[in-house]
Amino acid sequence: MIDDFLAHGLSDVEEAVRKAAAIEIMPRFRQLAEHEVDQKSGPHDLVTVADRQAEEYLTAALKRLLPGSAVVGEEAVHADPAAYGALREDAPVWIVDPVDGTRQFVSGDPAFCTLVALAHRGELLASWTYAPALEELSTAVRGQGAYVNGARIRSGSPEPRAELRVAMAHPFYTSEEDKRALARLDVPGVAARPCGSAGLEYLRVARGEMDALAFTWPSAWDHAAGLLLVAEAGGHQSTVAGVPFRVDRDNALPFAVGRDEATALRVRELLRGDPDGAARERRAR
So where does Mg(2+) get bound (predicted)? Predict the structure, then answer.
């Protein structure tokens, strides 16, 4: 069933993502009324009517496209945390962030996107990263490469001895323990800055515009689409436990994503306070 869908149904998903943005998101961009913006856990954790309506649209459309599938969406999980458990079940699951970068969306910044990924038993199979205000659709299918508006992209490797450009979890969303781990990136040769929309930061790595990412939170809707996009562009990722981040399990955090394996491992070792660990790991192979 899934193989057949991957062979014949991907264009329908693209159409659903574009329609959700056209109907529920873009008409509200820079048009939000005060009562259409709410806080969830705090002043920086925002949700809008566009988030909720776009997720409802996508939930119905994606389930219709792949009968028997489940949806794990950011807003549905906020309302019912038990819904996250579908990631560990046997049915294929759609992972949805209707507006990734809600803070940017509310402020009128075009750097937001809609994220959709399809997973089965923890394996990421396909992903869509749609930035409607930027008119960019990025897609990836496992084993078939990464694309932006139909053109293939590759992450490449940083220039030798160049300063690493790293986007890290924004301090608005980090604990004191997280901040201590991220502070280990403040070393010569690394230029770290807070991230914006996670989905668009993943895209920058997949394109080779950023070298690495360092994230401290596990929410599958923020990471699933981007992880597949980076992997299909030639990148790499690892948690501080030395294993890949997976959407169907508890992960050791933080985790690092890089344009190539060496970059991801270097950032990972900095995060766990062992800057020479990546070199030792390569020598041991």
Answer: 74, 97, 100, 222
